[in-house]
Design brief:
The protein has a single domain, classed as Alpha-Beta Complex (Spore Coat Polysaccharide Biosynthesis Protein SpsA, Chain A), CATH 3.90.550. About 25% of the residues lie in helices and about 30% in strands. The protein has eight helices and 17 strands. Strands 1, 4, 7, 8, 10, 13, 14, 15 and 17 form a nine-stranded mixed β-sheet that branches. A two-stranded antiparallel ribbon has the order 2-3. A two-stranded antiparallel sheet has the order 5-6.
């Protein structure tokens, strides 16, 4: 199954980092957050990726070209003019890198992928959020309902810890809780090809235009995920994810050992 990752935005709320790199290339644990997202999908055997590029898209292209060309050990023989690879540690991914315009909106980026996606069910997420959502259960949920679109509904974590108080006396501090009210669209969506009928042009916003129309027609369902989810909108979010990684047990890390099958790249 094909997986679309929207990775073309400018990341204006994270300008401390995105002046140099696009947001999907900001590193957590020495690897871009985009890599973490793809590792999660491939753990569930979804490894055919279509990455929509925009702002600083060449940075994403260069990452995958380097990942393909420089992984493992190399022996360079200057006399013979040869390069020999050993112990190559590549992924099982097929990566399609598609330029979708600098100012194109989310729905427009997806629309530009229409011919490449074809007429099959596909998955979609954003290039700036990680989760431990069960993707197999998500897909089964989507199939059970038989609607055009399924999004993963999450309760966002509060940005600050809380105080437990007895009158005016502080008894203790609480960790950042999960908000008890409301659900938001956390990405990790599944779409039928009919979604393209709701996308008009480059300025179509997937969320506020296409998905709202689908909701009005009762063609949108939500898979409730009560586990871990975190987007990376701000430097605080980035540092929080890095702290979780440094703890040794980041909750979104669902994958096992590295694979040794080649990574294939396609640019368009």
């Amino acid at each position: 199954m094909k997986v679309v990752i929207l990775a073309g935005g400018m990341g204006t709320r994270l300008q401390e980092e995105t002046q140099v790199h696009p947001k999907p290339m900001i590193e957590i644990g020495g690897q871009p957050i985009l890599w973490h997202i793809m590792k999660h999908y491939s753990q569930y055997h979804f490894s055919d990726f279509y990455i929509s590029l925009g702002y600083l898209g060449n940075s994403i292209k260069n990452f995958f070209l380097d990942e393909y060309s420089l992984s493992g050990s190399l022996t360079i023989d200057f006399l013979k003019n040869t390069v020999e690879r050993q112990q190559r540690t590549s992924e099982t991914w097929r990566v399609n890198l598609v330029d979708t315009g600098l100012t194109t909106m989310t729905g427009g980026r997806l629309l530009r992928l229409r011919e490449k996606i074809g007429n099959d069910t596909f998955m979609l997420t954003y290039g700036d959020g990680v989760s431990n959502v069960d993707l197999s259960a998500l897909l089964q949920f989507h199939r059970n309902y038989g609607r055009i679109a399924t999004v993963t509904a999450v309760r966002p974590p509060a940005r600050f810890g809380g105080l437990n108080m007895d009158g005016d006396v502080v008894e203790n501090f609480t960790e950042k809780p999960i908000l008890g009210e409301g659900w938001i669209n956390g990405g990790f969506a599944v779409f039928e090809p009919e979604i393209f009928d709701y996308l008009v042009d480059d300025q179509t916003i997937l969320e506020s235009m296409a998905l709202e129309q689908l909701a009005a027609e009762r063609q949108l369902v939500a898979y409730r995920h009560n586990g871990f989810w975190q987007c990376m909108d701000t430097l605080r979010d980035k540092n929080y994810l890095q702290d979780l990684w440094d703890s040794g047990s980041p909750p979104w890390k669902t994958w096992m050992a590295e694979s040794g099958i080649g990574l294939r790249l396609r640019a368009a």
